[in-house]
Design brief:
286 residues; alpha/beta; Spore Coat Polysaccharide Biosynthesis Protein SpsA, Chain A; 2 domains; 9-stranded mixed beta sheet; 9 helices; 40% helix
Length: 286
């Protein structure tokens, strides 16, 4: 028997059917019963859709037909879930596996406080499950132009954002502030922007410390790849243009720091991608 608010779990797949199937396998062990899963395939050109449907025929797969980016792909699933009348939406990276109590813990936090607009999980590294990757989210430094994940509980004032690797969104909050900004953030910083918009509208962020999720991280782009560097820096520039009192400062300091690291590591492709990404972020509208 299904009890509790309805939750739609949105998994975004892009050439990652192995991870997505492993994530779906773990979701089957959830102790929360009133949930539905939607897989959004974001324009994969491999046989991801066929393999996911064969492994989990019970999970609907929505095909976008092209890569809409993280924000755009997730929003396809979010819109469908809202149309179906869901109470909550759980954005969950497909390169994760979840503890059986992960969803129950998040819903309990959200239901206990109507002022909470989003709830995060405690993320651990999938390849090193004793090490914390993020305690829900982190904070943004407008002096250094960097964001930093928290590794332990912090006062609510220091919880600037929740990471979209695992985030439970309330329907009322979504209806008030809108979805992820797919027109500005193709990939990276979209969750930070969404969190800032929530907080500006008076909603609070929370972390469910009993919601445990193991996350591989950067499975789609590859850790240290030029593609990651490009999109991260493009989105960083757009974020600080939108929120920083003096945007030139955090953009300059943050970009110089990342360029310096790539020089020290002899990473020429990353150096070039960082420059190109920042330039693109400065050119396009906020």
């Amino acid at each position: 028997m299904k009890t509790g608010p309805t939750v739609y779990v949105i998994l975004l797949n892009w050439h990652g059917w192995r991870d997505t199937i492993a994530c779906l396998d773990s979701l089957a062990s959830l102790d929360y019963t009133n949930y539905h899963v939607l897989v959004v395939d974001n324009g994969s050109t491999d046989d991801s859709v066929t393999r996911i449907r064969a492994a989990h025929p019970e999970a609907p797969v929505i095909e976008t037909g092209r890569n809409l980016g993280f924000s755009g792909g997730c929003n396809v699933g979010v819109r469908r879930a809202l149309e179906e009348g869901t109470d909550y939406i759980w954005l969950l990276n497909s390169d994760t596996t979840v503890d059986p109590q992960a969803l129950t813990a998040m819903v309990a936090i959200a239901e206990a406080d109507p002022g909470v607009g989003a709830v995060g999980s405690v993320l651990y590294y999938l390849d090193s499950p004793k090490d914390i990757q993020a305690w829900g989210g982190g904070e943004v430094c407008f002096w250094s132009g960097r964001s930093r994940h928290h590794l332990n509980p912090v006062p609510s004032a220091r919880l600037h954002y929740l990471t979209a690797a695992s985030i439970l969104l309330g329907r009322r909050a979504l209806e008030e502030i809108g979805l992820l900004d797919e027109n500005t953030f193709f990939m990276y910083w979209e969750d930070t922007d969404f969190s800032f918009r929530l907080r500006k509208a008076g909603w609070r962020l929370a972390v469910a410390d009993r919601s445990i999720v193991l996350h591989r991280e950067h499975a789609a782009t590859g850790k240290g790849s030029p593609l990651l560097d490009y999109y991260f820096n493009e989105s960083a520039a757009r974020f600080f243009r939108r929120y920083a009192p003096i945007a030139a400062w955090p953009i300059s300091i943050g970009t110089l720091g990342r360029l310096g690291k790539r020089i020290l590591r002899g990473n020429l492709p990353g150096f070039v991608a960082t420059l190109h990404g920042t330039y693109s972020g400065l050119r396009k509208n906020r």
